[in-house]
Specification:
Elements: H1 3-11, H2 22-43, H3 50-63, E1 67-71, H4 74-84, E2 91-96, H5 102-109, E3 113-117, H6 128-141, E4 145-149, H7 161-171, E5 174-178, E6 186-187, E7 190-191, E8 198-202, E9 216-220, H8 223-233, H9 255-266, H10 268-286, E10 299-300, E11 306-309, H11 313-322, H12 352-360, E12 361-364, H13 372-386
Parallel strand pairs: 2-3, 2-4, 4-5, 5-8
Antiparallel strand pairs: 1-9, 6-7, 6-10, 8-9, 11-12
This protein binds pyridoxal-5'-phosphate (PLP).
The site of pyridoxal-5'-phosphate has 15 residues, from α4 and α5.
Amino acid sequence: MRSNEAVAAVSAPVQSVPLFDLKRQQARLRSDIDVRISRVLDHGQFILGPEVDALERDLAAFAGARHCIAVSSGRDALIMALMALGAGPGDAVFVPAFTFSATAGVVASVGASPVFVDVNETTFNMNPEALETVVSQVVADGVLRPLAVMPVDLYGRPADYPAIAEIAARHNIQVVADAAQSFGGSLGDTSVGALAPISCTSFYPTKPLGAFGDGGAVFTEDDKLAEAVSQIRTHGRQGDGDEALRLGMTGRLDTIQAAVLQAKLAVFADELARRQEVAERYNAALSDAIATPLNEQGIGSAWALYTVRLPNRDDIRARLQADGVSTALFYRIPLNRHPAFAKYLTGREELPVSERLSAEVLSLPMGPDITDDEVDYVIERLLAAVA
Ligand SMILES: *Cc1c(COP(=O)(O)O)cnc(C)c1O
């Protein structure tokens, strides 16, 4: 920042803070993105052009994953992963009850049955003990065949993969990571993308690594699954072959989106570091007054969202709105209460934490381009509202 801009930033008092601000990032990267998009227009390979191959290599390297297949969205990534595993009618896929509706929607879309598992009060992620209980119930019922567990890395924080992998191995079920919010996160030395045998992420514009449209990726350590997903991505065909080897879909990432993502991936590590800084600034100022997210050594969050808990959430949200602070409710409705999933309920669900969190969570402005002054304004207004 040049010094005259710094002075302007200090002298203009903050009056409103958006939840996400994608315009500032675009301004930072615009000239690079323009060049990269022009290159695609010049070569004209809009479907699976060279930028897609290059992006897949770079994403796999970033994540330390063996394979990366770039696809059309996060939802399609999950659907293709489930198709590659052969999921269908009669299969149970265990999902957390507190997440975006797509997590259960993809399971239903392939004809399998989502089975809801409660989450942990402080990590917001799938509770491994609850998973054990629910898998055992499904086994005892003998109606559905347990096929897979789909943990979600909510708000960017990786789920408890070591504990979930142990349970999955014992029950002989697959682990499919819904890492839509967490690309860039890590557990110890292992990055999101390599934490499960198959992981799916999203490049929806407001995700930590966002395109200028829809996009996603599947990461896997398994050569056979990688081959299956890449066939499913193009109508079930192998490469340019005209034979449908399996059922597939139109699930490719556009070359133009790959070009945009290459520009964004080049600065992604710096953006993740800034998100971490913002989360720490919030935590330092807010943790004595309200319930703030965990920030633990060795657990790297991508900080897709910074989410606090407030018993009187709706009142506080209205006061912040009046003060110009935009917030959002991720998620206001646990999955068991969505009409689309009513037919999968057994009536035995025990989801008290998911129910409580959906009434109490509030996501505050977050992103790599939010300024310290804006963070401080949000902090000041929030502390005034809860006082
Ligand atoms: C965003 C999201 C998805 C879906 O990703 P799209 O790219 O929007 O299809 C799936 N699961 C979770 C948890 C998400 O946050």
